[in-house]
Model the fold of this input.
Amino acid sequence: MQGVDIKNRLLKSLPPEDLAIIVSHLERVPLSPRQVLHLKGLPMEDVFFVEDGLISVLAEIGGGDVVEVWLIGREGVVGLPVLLGGTTSPFRRMVAVGGHAFRLPAERFRALLNERPLFQRLMLRYAQAVAIQSGQAGACAGSHSLQQRLARWLLSAQYRLGRNELPLTHALLSRLLGTRRASVTVALGKFEAAGIIGQRRGVIVIADLERLEQMACNCHRIIRGAYEKIAVNLDP
Amino acid sequence: MPSFLFRVSDGSRVFRDDEAVELEDLRAAADYARQDAHDLICHEQAGAQNWSQWRIHICDETGRELCAIPVLDAVRSTVDRDRGEGP
Done:
């Protein structure tokens, strides 16, 4: 693992001595589309620090249906319940966009949290960012327009994936936004006509990041701010 | 089960989603389109403008159009059905 170029923002924020110890326990694993990392209700054996790709966190809404409630990319870790002292979750975690991650066994993760105080501090700040995101996203869903929320999700995906090419389907976005697919199709078509995005089969390409940010509600800045604060003054 | 493609037009532009939806038959596809029509209006996609121009086109999986439902008619027929009137 020596000299590996790490993209995960949490790992990158660690002081060198903490990073070196943690890296020695990490295993690089591929993430294949539709691969399930965690099933609802089953003990989580590993946590995953995402390098490339996006993981959907899926909640049940009845009738066997699930919807995406958020996406995890290189800004985070898959398996937050383990950090918070749990072992299971009511959500399924599945790969939405393929890539790779660093796997860390849950037992080892728990031990490292106890042994490395800065690592624990970093991870708890991450948990705080996720809590802020959940709260703000709830307020947003009830108050802001589809266009604002769609812009926010495209920006979020860009941040978490680390690139402007987003392999997200209209179907996935419609579940994330709680709308019918047609409404997402029309909203995306309007962004495309305005030159803010481009589309080709299965891929949305952000063409004008600045204008997309203007389309988003302030919830975007609040949530982004929470993630950006995680690493600030970690070891004062 | 057959697959259908749904496209939306506003009188000047066509909005396409190229991922097909599996539904029982054309009747089910028409119901699906009506629900889309409701949602489009809820999200004010036309900016409260000219809904009369908007249509949902139901196509087979090759893209061949099977029928087009005006968005306003779709909403009207659902209201009638909820009232116990109409087919």
Remarks:
- Chain B has two helices and five strands.
- Strands of chain B lie at 3-9, 14-16, 21-22, 55-60, 65-70.
- The first strand of chain B starts at residue 3 and ends at 9.
- Chain B has a mean pLDDT of 86.
